[in-house]
Amino acid sequence: MHTSNNSERLEKCDRIGRIPLCTDDDYDFQKVDILDEMYKKSYTIFNELRSKCQLCDVALVVENRKLSAHKVILAATIPYFRGMFTLDLMEANMKEIAIEDMNYETVDALLSFAYTGELRISTSNVQSIMMGANFFQMLEVVQYCGTFLLTRLHPSNALSIREFCKMMCVEGSIAEKINDYIQKHFSAISKDDDFKKLPLEDTVELLKNDNLYVDSEEQIFVAAMEWLRFEESRHDDAEKLV
Q1: Gene3D superfamilies attached here (predicted)?
Q2: Domain contains 14
Q3: Which of 74, 112, 117, 124 sits most deeply, having the most CB atoms within 10 A of its CB?
Q4: Which residues span the domain enclosing 106?
């Protein structure tokens, strides 16, 4: 620990005393701002400690597998755990916390994001990541996933993406851009089975949208007829669509 060296250094500093710096003005200062660098270095160390299971005080149990972590890091980065650990819930003192209805890979990815700020979103994991982030109240990650889905919009999936994003409480510009896409590609979307499977309320709302890109009102009428024919039980809904 080099205690003797530190003591000698402190004694020498005391002998020097306060160095005159030409001014005693409290406003004569220089601000040191290394927060980004410091946080990055600190969280790199936190993640190393996590990977080695050092100083960890909690484990997340997912699909009978454990993910070690530090409560203070979870509380600082994941709102769900902040509430759990600071509101006197019984889990606050538990060494193991079971995470239900989520797969191991999703929780592992979100936990790694909490420690590193890095997350790999792909077509194969975007929905599970988005659902997990929504559960953990990681709204920033939910938005990242919504932005990813925006770049994958197609007439065959636009309605499903809109419904999924609505369930994940995605609002603002992402929701607006999805709706804009549906309006601009209504002609192709209305021919897809996803459109024909829409519930009545959503179909009425879409068909009555004044911003649909169509050549004529006839296209909307044809789409309505296709929706009605898709299921025999819908015949009584004709008046609501017209």
Answers
A1: 1.25.40.420, Potassium Channel Kv1.1, Chain A
A2: no
A3: 74
A4: 38-123
